[in-house]
Write a structure and sequence with these properties.
The chain is mostly helical. It is built from 4 helices and no strands.
Length: 133
């Protein structure tokens, strides 16, 4: 793991522990949102890795397949983003927005790195298993 990855993981962990710890210790009303936004960020991290993997597999594919992939991706992503922005974020109390978005961004960064490490270990185990057989 690179030094940059370790640094980003440390910063994201400090942000997550700071916001979640403060909310839990002081029993703030935002704690439910923080946990929810942590899991939303974790899901976005998985989505990000999935999209990057699929884009890598697009090399050599016909242009229609590439356009179809991005059309489906945008067709599902843009309405969800619009709904999330208007119905969730803009309907929250203004005091909850900054901590919630901070936790979501920190969890995206942290979990992208964690999921990436886990994925590399799984892939290495598969390669090792194939080589032994």
């Amino acid at each position: 793991m690179s030094k940059l990855s370790k640094l980003l993981m440390a910063i994201a962990s400090i942000i997550l522990i700071g916001f979640l710890g403060k909310a839990l210790i002081l029993d703030e009303a935002v704690k439910g949102y923080l946990v929810t936004f942590f899991f939303v960020g974790s899901g976005l991290a998985l989505l990000r890795l999935f999209i990057n993997t699929m884009i890598g597999k697009m090399k050599g594919k016909h242009i229609v397949v590439k356009i179809g992939f991005f059309a489906v991706l945008l067709g599902l992503g843009i309405p969800f983003q619009s709904w999330f922005r208007t119905e969730v974020i803009f309907s929250m109390s203004k005091a909850f927005i900054v901590p919630s978005i901070s936790v979501m961004v920190a969890s995206v960064v942290l979990m992208t790195i964690v999921y990436g490490i886990i994925g590399k270990r799984i892939q290495a185990a598969r390669v090792e298993k194939l080589q032994l057989n």
